[in-house]
Amino acid sequence: MKVLMIIITEGIDYDDRLRKECASIKALGNIPKIAALEDENKQKKGVTDEGVSFNTLFLITRKVLPHKRFLIIKAFEIYIKFLIIILFSRSNVIWLHNIEMAGLIPFCWTLKKIGFINKLIWDQHELPANKFFFNKFIKKLFIFLINACESIVVANKERRDFLFKQLGKKNLNSQFHVIENYVDQRFASLPKGVLPEEVKEWLKGKPYLLAQGGANPDRHLNEVVEAIINIEGIKLIVVGPYSEEVIYKLKNKWGDIISEKVYFTGFVPQKKLVDFIDHAIVSIVLYKKDIDNCWLCAPNRLYQALIRGIPVIVGINPPMANLVNKYNCGVVLAGDGSNVEDIKNGIIKVIENQAEFNENTKYCLDDISWESQMPVFKKIMETKMVSGV
User: Fold this and answer.
1) Which of 156, 279, 367, 388 has CA 20 to 30 A from 321's CA?
2) Do 144 and 388 contact (CB within 8 A), yes or no?
3) Is the predicted pLDDT of residue 78 greater than 60, yes or no?
4) Within the chain, which residue ranges are assigned CATH 3.40.50.2000?
5) Which of 223, 267, 222 is nearest to 246 (CA)?
6) In what order do the strands lie in the sheet with 44-47?
7) Do the beta carbons of residue 376 and residue 177 sit within 8 Å?
């Protein structure tokens, strides 16, 4: 079957879940194709490293209208352009990604009813905003949109169970499938990474902690930085997007020591992440506990570190804490990472027990293999509608 993946993403090159899903769909004999709106907002066509065709959108409204304003107008242009792609692609399956694509579901459902497409899948990488579950109208609309799809894909069992509780499992007709954001063999088998020379020079032989989530405000970067500053002989490398404002605020608070202790890489393509993961003494993965989506997060970066033999420091967020406690492959903090002393103690504990934690990472490898989920993909492609909407 032809499977059209529709997504808004920072960039196809950086979206590891999208890459892995396309590879799995293709491995089952289907033909995936990607239609994406990337942050750079450029119209392109090409083929990924896995041989998956893609084309990206250019939005006039994003170029001429102010950032984060007139969102309804921008959304209208997005939906119109994606709908045109759907009509011309003649795909059997439409695979929508994330809550942003909810507006396309009524159109795709109509196309399905008239036989233009065969199947509609909604892949919810993230949970909707908390407010979805407090507004009765939005909640009913959300249930309707879910039931318009054959399959709903969620990123872990905890998120699935959360949706069942919030929406009422008896109200949901679609089949729910869990696809954990595990690591595939391609990433696991990459040769050992090589640190860029400028990073080696900056480290000056010092070990480093890896924060792979960038400067996202939900990930306690300020607390991690403060902890690192207060531990002698160790540095911090932050991989992922950041803004100059973040660096300005850190330097304004801590002065020149930031340049000595913290290195920001910016965006790094997925296959180059091993350059930074493989030489870290530990990877720290933190999410705030007061947002459901963060509380129930089990991110790609957690599994990427473990699959490469690097222990992790995580907060008490259930999906992450359960895995680390099960295999003793790192440290689970007392909280979610909001306490600097808690982070500092966690780093020290890893340093003191590094050999043991490194050894224990190998015992979790079978449990975090992307390929182990191939039966789930097969089931999704075979799923038929339980009942109509």
Assistant:
1) 279
2) no
3) yes
4) 2-182+371-382, 186-368
5) 222
6) 44-47, 53-56, 31-38, 2-9, 93-97, 119-124, 151-154, 175-178
7) yes
Segment 193-208 shows an average pLDDT of: 97
Give 129's pLDDT tier (boundaries 50, 70, 90). confident
pLDDT of residue 170: 95
Express each pLDDT in 271-330 by its tens digit: 899 999 999 999 999 999 988 999 999 899 999 999 999 999 999 999 999 999 999 999
The encoded tokens of residue 282 equal: 């530990």
Strands 44-47 and 53-56: antiparallel
d(CA 153, CA 267) in angstroms, rounded, equals 27
- 3-state SS, 221-280, equals HHHHHHHHHCCCCCEEEEEECCCHHHHHHHHHHHCCHHHHHEEEEECCCHHHCHHHHCCC
**Strand, helix or coil for residue 65:** coil
- CATH fold for domain 186-368: Rossmann fold (3.40.50)
> CA nearest 129: which of 104, 99, 102, 93?
99
Strand order in the sheet with 312-314: 262-266, 235-239, 208-211, 282-285, 312-314, 330-332
**Dist CA 163 CA 132 (whole Å):** 11
Phi-psi region at 62: left, alpha or beta (left = phi > 0; alpha = psi -120 to 50): alpha
**Has residue 89 got a pLDDT over 70?**
yes
CATH architecture entry for 2-182+371-382: 3-Layer(aba) Sandwich (3.40)
Higher pLDDT pick, 9 / 131:
9
